[in-house]
UniProtKB/TrEMBL annotation:
<keyword id="KW-0378">Hydrolase</keyword>
<protein>
    <submittedName>
        <fullName>Cobalt-precorrin 5A hydrolase/precorrin-3B C17-methyltransferase</fullName>
        <ecNumber>2.1.1.131</ecNumber>
        <ecNumber>3.7.1.12</ecNumber>
    </submittedName>
</protein>
<keyword id="KW-0489">Methyltransferase</keyword>
<keyword id="KW-0808">Transferase</keyword>
Length: 566
């Protein structure tokens, strides 16, 4: 199974040197350091336990530079649950010991050996099969699938008990292994794509060498594919991917079928399934089953990258205000899978660090439509593309621009892209949360920028919203090019609100050097505000009281008029 780059988790500065050495072994590996204790980590975290469990549940390999016991106790609650089991290793802070703990089938021993070699020590391998044979038989390389795990375990213990083994079929990765081979052996490892019930004492390993070209019209595709493979006496475990025509790229039935069969879906331009199959896998044997399904069997595992292309993906994501803790997990996962990242340079930097293989396209903040079109061009080539916004992408940001570009386009390839908008914590909500709950009742969100709308509309909306006694959240309150608008806006609001009205100013919320100020409408002047500030203006019911730790709590009660009895 292919895992993402490992997370290297450290608790103190003392481990940084060892962490850096390990980082060199894995492109894309990030060092996660405990906030306030580690300087110079790629990511900082506040809670060790929560962080480790989150990584584990996201199936991220974990290299923790701390006592093995701490890691075990932290992950223990998750171990009984079925689900992801990424490799987990404990490494001594000074790099003197490497202990693989979990994820035997995910290649933890392979990682332990690589890390140990990098640190010039021996890995603490305790898996007997692996020690004896130098490989984990139950973890064949990518391109191969193990038939049955439980049978496999019994098979390995028989081998360990001293039995010999025969290898049938091509298993190049076992050439290096120190297996007790004997052509007369009772036990056998069988590598092949034929469908059959394993004989007693037989370990089946399937090369993923079969492609099935399908037409989207076939009813109940997953069953039809299984049936076709069965009729051709080909094991479903050998299925490497489904292939379909470019024209059906956005077809949901195809996507669901691939998901259900647990294989990737690729596309190419050809008419008719047998032509699809024939052209994509050279030298393959093509079996045409029913109309609408053709099977191509290669002599070796298929290289997915050489088979057509994937459906491109475009995700418009919100980073949240800045702090990594406030970024939603779906956004983190999207950034990890991205081939291309587009956005205003400041935000692209905030979304990093990135791996060397990820392409960054930084542009000026004002080139939004151009950026949106560029994103579609890249995604239409089959790439996984991310467009970044700060806060939420749907709030005065890229999501609307991306949809506008798509709406204007008649390019079928753009409309076939797998487009998704992933939300983020918007600046108004992040600021409100820090102040308390100033937006706890009805509120109105406005951008004061008149770049894309006439100032007269802004004035009218301000007037009506202020009159309606809505709390107000102002984005883009002021800039060098728009120096007078905020003063004007405050004047309009002042016609409907008293000078005592509560105002919250949040600057760089969730970013280094953030400030939060609670003031009043009467005391607010435009020079206290810049383009990195969120302005929240309370309604007539918004109130303030002191916090024990200093400063103030601000909230707008949920009720209006007479307080209901509770
Ligand atoms: N999509 C963003 C808003 C983009 S408009 C979001 O949902 O937050 C840019 C404006 O948002 C800025 O002028 C500022 O008013 C506000 N803003 C964005 N990030 C902020 C932050 N971290 N702290 C305070 N205000 C912020």
């Amino acid at each position: 199974m292919a895992h993402s780059a490992p997370a290297i988790v450290i608790l103190g500065n003392g481990s940084l040197a060892t962490a850096r050495k390990i980082q060199q072994l894995y492109s894309g590996a990030l060092i996660h350091g405990l906030a306030d204790r580690v300087e110079g980590a790629d990511r900082s975290y506040r809670e060790f336990g929560a962080t480790l469990r989150e990584l584990y549940q996201q199936d991220t390999p974990i290299i923790a530079l701390c006592a093995a016991g701490i890691v075990i106790r932290t992950l223990a609650p998750l171990l009984l649950e079925k689900g992801a089991e990424p490799p987990v290793l404990a490494v001594a802070e000074d790099g003197s010991a490497v202990v693989p703990l979990l994820g035997g089938l995910g290649g933890v021993n392979v990682m332990a050996r690589a890390i140990a070699a990098g640190l010039d020590v021996a890995a603490a391998i305790t898996t007997s099969g692996e020690l004896r044979f130098g490989t984990c038989l139950l973890n064949p390389p990518s391109g191969y699938a193990l038939g049955d795990l439980e049978l496999g375990k019994r098979f390995v213990s028989d081998l360990l008990a001293g039995q010999s083994v025969r290898i049938e079929g091509a298993a190049p990765w076992l050439d290096q292994a120190q297996l007790p081979e004997d052509p007369q052996a009772r036990l056998s490892i069988h590598v092949g794509s034929a469908e059959r019930t394993p004989a007693a004492n037989e370990l089946m390993i399937y090369p993923r060498s079969v492609l099935v070209a399908v037409s989207a019209e076939v009813a109940d595709l997953p069953s039809a594919v299984r049936m076709a493979l069965h009729q051709a006496k080909i094991a479903v475990q050998s299925l490497a991917c489904l292939l379909a025509s470019d024209l059906d790229m956005a077809n949901p039935a195809l996507r669901e079928a691939a998901l259900e069969l647990g294989v990737p879906l690729r596309f190419t331009s050809a008419s008719g399934v047998s032509e699809l199959a024939r052209h994509t896998v050279p030298h393959a044997t093509v079996v045409t089953a029913d109309s609408g399904i053709a099977i191509a069997v290669a002599s070796q595992p298929l290289e997915l990258a050489q088979i057509g292309r994937a459906r491109g993906r475009l995700a418009v994501i919100g980073l949240g205000p800045g702090a990594a803790e406030l970024m939603v997990p779906a956004v983190k996962a999207e950034l990890a899978r991205a081939n291309d990242v587009l956005g205003y340079e400041t935000y692209v930097r905030m979304a990093g660090p990135f791996r060397d293989d990820q392409v960054l396209h930084c542009t000026d903040n004002r080139e939004e439509m151009q950026r949106a079109r560029h994103a579609f061009e890249l995604a239409a080539q089959g790439r996984s593309v991310v467009v970044v916004s700060s806060g939420d992408p749907g709030v005065f940001a890229m999501a609307a621009a991306v949809l506008e570009a798509l709406h204007e386009s008649s390019e079928p390839a753009w409309h076939s892209v797998d487009l998704e908008i992933l939300p983020g914590v918007s600046a108004s909500l992040a600021t409100a949360a820090q102040a308390g709950a100033p937006l706890g009742h009805d509120f109105c969100v406005m951008s004061l920028s008149d770049n894309l709308k006439p100032w007269a509309i802004i004035e009218k909306r301000l007037d009506l919203a202020a009159e309606a006694d809505l709390a107000l959240a102002f984005y883009n309150p002021i800039s060098r090019a728009r120096p007078w608008q905020l003063g004007q806006a405050l004047e309009i609001v002042g016609r409907h609100r008293t000078p005592e009205t509560v105002v919250v100013l949040g600057r760089d919320i969730g970013r280094p050097g953030q400030t939060l100020r609670v003031t009043t409408l009467g005391a607010l002047t435009p020079d206290q505000v810049d383009m990195r500030t969120m302005v929240l203006i309370g309604s007539s019911t918004t109130c303030v009281f002191p916090r024990a730790e200093g400063g103030k709590w601000v909230y707008t009660p949920r009720w209006y008029g007479d307080k209901p009895t509770s």
